Amino acid sequence: MKALSNPAEEFLSWLAVERGRSQNTIASYRRDIAAYEMHLGEQGLPPLGATAGDLERYLARLRASGHGPATVARVVSSLRGLHRFLVDEGYAASDPTADLEPGRIPLRLPKALGEDAVARIIESVSGDDPLSRRDRALLEVLYGTGARVSEAVGLNLADLAELDDSGGLLRLFGKGAKERVVPLGRQAAAALERWVGEGGRDRLSPERWRTRNDAEAVFLNARGSRLSRQGAFAAVRSRAGAVGTPIGPHTLRHSCATHMLAHGAGVRVVQELLGHASVTTTQLYTKVTNEHLRAVYEAAHPRARRTAQAGTDHGSDEGAAAR
What we know:
CATH superfamily of the domain at 115-249: Intergrase catalytic core
Largest sheet: 3 strands, antiparallel
Mean pLDDT: 84
Helix content: 40-55%
CATH class of the domain at 115-249: Mainly Alpha
Structural class: mainly alpha
Number of strands: 3
Strand content: 5-15%
Strand order of the largest sheet: 1-2-3
Shape: globular
Oligomer: single chain
CATH architecture of the domain at 115-249: Orthogonal Bundle
Number of helices: 14
């Protein structure tokens, strides 16, 4: 990847050190800014010399090349952060993104599986070998807590608390290294105990740990190192695909939230469980459950069906209602 200008590198360092942004977030900013600076170079413009018109033309180029509204909005966010930093640090006199409009992002509802589908995936992993134990525990944790895959693979043994027949607790570190403690259901706790107990994790543990980070990890790969996000994604997709439902870890997170709301959990409770910074994000799931409720209602209620049933005796119905 093309090297960034020095001020841009300072901005990324500031995001990491001062704002605590994750490596994935920093990498996303780096890609956006590198493409932006390359474009400016092609136009003969210095990295710090862009005007509002230059930015508008760059965004128009992105849209014309097939980038969707969500991608363009992300790029605007990256560039807005960069230019604000440049002004604050005295590299630039004005911010060309001040009046920039990213455009409206279409609402994308999270996809969730039905409860039976989730149960079918999890219960299909029933082997006693170490990888089966690991994958069963991983699936149970992802669905049981709504954890992000990065949070699950980031778990250390010290983050497991009070695992017993009644459940347990997990300490998760979310976006921006924000810590939260979440409850763990009985089945997830049992799967974790089976994995970290004798005949599970210890059979993947090497004679000598490569790093302390690996030694502390809850989830290991077949080589005895900490399981990566890519490894967890592959494990979930493989297990789910084996029963005809090839999904990724995030679908289990969506399913957890949707099913809890459908069974009466409060939005604020689900927000805390999933680690959403804003309740607005959590409220997307209420729309999913409301749409499901409407579909069931329209299919089941006789006055909501699109085609009236033939031969309905309205008088008899009214008489029955009066009784």
